[in-house]
Design goal:
Chain A: Residues 269-290 are annotated as: Disordered. Chain A: ATP binds at residue 55. Chain A: Residues 28-270 form the Protein kinase domain. Chain A: This is Serine/threonine protein kinase. The complex is a heterodimer of chains A (324) and B (246). With 324 residues, chain A is of the alpha+beta class. Chain A has two domains: 5-60 and 78-104, Phosphorylase Kinase, domain 1 (2-Layer Sandwich); 111-266, Orthogonal Bundle (Transferase(Phosphotransferase), domain 1). Helices cover 44% and strands 18% of the residues of chain A. Chain A is built from nine helices and ten strands. Chain A has a six-stranded antiparallel sheet, with helices on one face. In chain A, helix 5 (197-212) runs antiparallel to helix 7. The longest helix of chain A is centred in the last third of the chain and has 49 residues, at 275-323. With 246 residues, chain B is of the alpha/beta class. Chain B has a single domain (6-94, 132-235), classed as 3-Layer(aba) Sandwich (Rossmann fold), CATH 3.40.50.410. In chain B, 46% of the residues lie in helices and 18% in strands. Chain B is built from eight helices and six strands. Chain B has helices spanning 23-32, 50-62, 75-103, 114-130, 149-163, 197-202, 212-228, 230-235; strands spanning 6-13, 35-43, 67-71, 133-140, 170-177, 185-191. A six-stranded mixed sheet of chain B has the order 3-2-1-4-5-6, sandwiched between helices. The longest helix of chain B has 29 residues, at 75-103. Classes of the chains: A alpha+beta (324), B alpha/beta (246). The interface between A and B is medium-sized, with 33 and 34 residues.
Chain lengths: 324, 246
């Protein structure tokens, strides 16, 4: 997206530039740019003691809106919802004023990169963490909104998925503030843009699909038929197929429900889905179990005999020595 | 707090006007009458020249709105972002005026310490969710826009989807310029959703001239007509009150 002029100048701040807070008098030295979007630019900066992230914008209202969200997150105790907020201020420079806020710097690759590097087995674990966080967020009356891999960073160790960029975070029941087409229920013609739990869960399903299609894909017919068609083409999505379908169709009322299904999908499978196989494998299982029990018993007997034999041998030896 | 219905013109074009009144003068006229103008410049492979760019920014600046130049693939997202941004901007203006009455002088939200802005912003957000909005969409249908029109249609459907997620009511109307025989042609009268746009858009004919100025002028007068009609006087009083305590 093209940026307007003042935002463009904000994305050109060179390393070493010092941002002075007008109200709180804190200073931040720019290290490098971390990212930019429609509503501002995020920089990695250094304050007096540590590295922190700083989001700056020419639009004070978007900064204050995001600060409001982050502030309400800090009221949720011990949660990993969004980065912690450290400072909010204005920067006056060459006759212009920009607003910024300073937050915790969350270091790590985004969800998609992480899974590509570490292997698909990480997807399930990260989904469990994400859904647990979303559950808390929803309970507090918020909907994350702009959920996508770029906004999900994997931090650690210990490995922990963290949501960054609360620009899309919306009070439940209102219109979603910011979204990205591929992850947006409205774009696929599968529901409104009113913020509810299911809006986020739809996006989670799209993130799962995204892991098999890193380049994303465009809408053709839209709707559940196109999306599930794409899902079925990728064997690596088999495990999550029914979960994806439920989330896309809005069948999960809460993140907790979806989490339970992910957890169930991750359990080791003892039964095959095919009915005939299932019976066969189950009887096999029984037989194998029984055999194992028998050998165990036999082994036990042998052990006992051996111990008794050894002990009596030692005793005889002792007696023999005593007699001599 | 007094907000009434927000009135916006959304101008979608790909270049410079070449006929009739100066569009920037017309934008100023619109603003004087409480109508905000947002402009979206649509590019494909072609780039918009400096003159066109200047005009796009000028119209939005004089019209109190927001402008953005994008490639047509990003149109949907831009249309909704620009509309929302302009809404916030207008509402912010209303709230600032209110603040000036309370605090005196020329105080704006930015003059308050950041800690005090949070609650004000909550009021603006709340208003943005509930305020009634009228958007008149002005589509440039000059020859170079022809192959961009399907994308424009998609973007407009998407806009109504976004805005209809709000709890406040919306009305849209669509005008094309140049029209078949006239400079500006009405395609769609005020309606809460743009679904009916699908059929009209395929029938659009395109012309060679770009009478942006006259189109804006006509659009403003359409807002005025609406105000005068008895039905709207009864159902949508312009002097609505939103009781909000800051």
């Amino acid at each position: 997206m093209m940026m307007n002029n003042s935002l463009k100048s904000l994305s050109k701040l060179s390393p070493g530039t010092v941002i002075h807070g007008k109200w709180h008098r804190n200073q931040y030295t720019i290290i490098k740019e971390l990212g930019n979007g429609a509503n501002g630019v995020v920089y990695l900066v250094r304050d007096s003691s540590r590295q922190v992230a700083l989001k700056i914008s020419d639009n004070p209202s978007s900064i204050i809106s995001e600060v409001n969200v982050l502030k309400s997150f800090t009221k949720v105790q011990g949660s990993a919802l969004g980065p912690s907020l450290f400072d909010v201020d204005d920067w006056e420079t060459v006759g212009k004023q920009f607003s910024f806020y300073v937050m915790e710097f969350i270091k790590g690759p985004n969800l998609l990169t992480f899974i590509q590097q570490k292997g698909p087995e990480w997807l399930g674990v990260l989904l469990l963490q994400l859904l647990a966080d979303l559950d808390v967020l929803h309970e507090k009356g918020w909907v994350f909104g702009d959920l996508k891999p770029e906004n999900l960073l994997v931090n650690g160790p210990p490995i922990r998925v963290r949501c960054i960029d609360v620009g899309g975070t919306t009070i439940k029941g209102r219109a979603i503030k910011e979204f990205t087409e591929f992850y947006d229920r409205g774009y696929w013609g599968m529901g409104s843009r009113k913020a509810d739990e299911r809006y986020d869960l739809f996006a989670v399903a799209m993130v799962i699909i995204n892991t098999a299609y890193p380049g994303r894909f465009n809408k053709t017919t839209g709707g559940i038929s196109q999306l599930m068609g794409m899902v079925k083409q990728k064997p690596e999505l088999n495990l999550y197929q029914s979960i994806i379908k439920n989330a896309l169709s809005g069948n999960y009322q809460t993140a907790g429900e979806m989490r339970r299904d992910v957890l169930a999908a991750l359990q080791p499978r003892k039964q095959k889905s095919d009915a005939g196989n299932q019976v066969k494998s189950r009887s096999q299982l029984h037989r194998n179990g029984a055999k194992r029990n028998v050998t165990k018993k036999k082994g036990g007997l042998f052990e006992t005999a051996l111990i008794i034999l050894t002990l009596s041998f030692l005793y005889f030896f002792y007696i023999y020595v005593q007699i001599l | 707090m007094r907000t009434g219905t927000l009135k916006q013109i959304l101008l979608i074009t790909d270049g410079c006007s070449n006929q009739g009144e100066d569009p920037i003068a017309m934008a100023t006229l619109a603003r004087e009458q409480g109508v905000t103008i947002n402009v979206i410049g649509v590019m494909e492979q072609d780039v918009i020249d400096d003159q066109g760019l200047k005009e796009i920014e000028g119209i939005a600046l004089s019209g109190g709105g927001v402008s953005q130049v994008v490639y047509s693939q990003q149109l949907s997202q831009t249309v909704q972002m620009v509309t929302r941004k302009a809404m916030t901007q207008t509402l912010q203006g209303v709230v600032n005026k209110e603040l000036q009455q309370i605090l005196g002088g020329t105080k704006k939200m930015e003059d308050l310490p950041p800690e005090k802005r949070g609650e004000i912003m909550e009021v603006v957000d709340e208003l943005g969710e509930t305020v009634e909005l009228d958007v008149l969409i002005l589509v440039d249908t000059s020859a170079s826009m022809t192959h961009k029109l399907p994308t424009v249609k998609e973007a407009l459907l998407d806009l109504s989807l976004s805005l209809n997620a709000r709890s406040g009511s919306n009305r849209f109307s669509v005008f094309a310029f140049p029209g078949k025989k006239v400079e500006v042609e009405k395609l769609l009268d005020w309606t809460p959703n743009l679904e009916s746009l699908t059929t009209i858009f395929s029938k659009l004919s395109t012309g060679g001239i770009t009478p942006t100025g006259p189109a804006i002028k006509e659009a403003i007068s359409y807002f005025q007509q609406k105000k005068r009609s008895l039905r709207s006087m009864l159902s949508r009083d312009d002097e609505q009150f939103f009781e909000e305590s800051i």
